[in-house]
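Justification of computing resources. Each target in the renewal requires a structure prediction run like the one illustrated here; the chain below, 245 residues long, is used simply to show the kind of job we budget for.
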Amino acid sequence: MQHTVVSQDQWLAARKALLAKEKELTHARDALSAERRTLPWVKIDKSYVFDGPAGKQSLADLFEGRSQLIVYHFMLGPGWKEGCPSCSYLADHFDGAAIHLAQRDVTFVVVSRAPRAEIEAYQKRMGWKFKWVSSFGTDFNHDFHVSFTPEEKAGGKVEYNYSMTEFPSEEAPGLSVFAKGEGGAVFHTYSSYARGLDILVGAYNFLDFAPKGRDEDKLPWTMAWVRRHDEYETASPKMASACCG
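Resulting C-alpha cells:
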C-alpha cells in the first residue's frame, strides 16, 4: 500500500473533512431508517407451520410474546450437507445480537427450508445457539422469494431482490420483518436481500475501518475469501506474507 505521509496537523485537517462526510452519511441513514418504518404493512393470511426446538409452531408463535419478529432466511436446502459459507459468515454475528434485540421487543429467528434434523446437525457443528426453525414442506421460502423451484430455475431468471434476475442456487439469502397487531394478526413490514444484508455483517464493518478495507477487488467474487469458521487455516508465514507483503 502506498499512502501519502503528512504531519499531524495535515492529517487532522483531512480527518475533519472526512468526518463531515461521515456525519452526512449518518444523518442520511437515520432519515432512510425512519422512512423504512413508514412503509405500509401487508397482513399475512396464509398459515405457515415451522418445525424447531419447541416443536411445531405457527408464524405467530415465533414472536414468543413480543410484538416484532425478524427472520433471517439462511441458505440451507433439503439434502445440503452444510450451509452456505456466506450465510454462515453472517450467522457468526447472530448469537450476540439476539439477546439484546429481545430487550427491545424484537424476537430473532433463523429459517431454512432444510428439515429440522439437517438444521440441527449443522448448527451443532457451528456451535450456534440462536433459534433456527425449518420451513420444510411450506410455501414460506417461496412466498418470500428466497427459494426457487426447478421450473423457476429452468426459466433462466427468478424473482429475487424485487426484480427478475439470474441466481446460481435454488436457495437465496434474505431478511424479513413482521409485526403482530391487535388481536394477534401478523403483518409483513419489510424484506431485504443481496447487498441490503451487508449491514448485518459486523466483520465487514470492522474491515471498512482498516487501511486495506475489505480487499476484495481482485477476487473472483466479493465473498470468495469467506469460509465457515471451522474451515480457516491458522495464520502461517506463507499467509502472513500474502497478506502483508
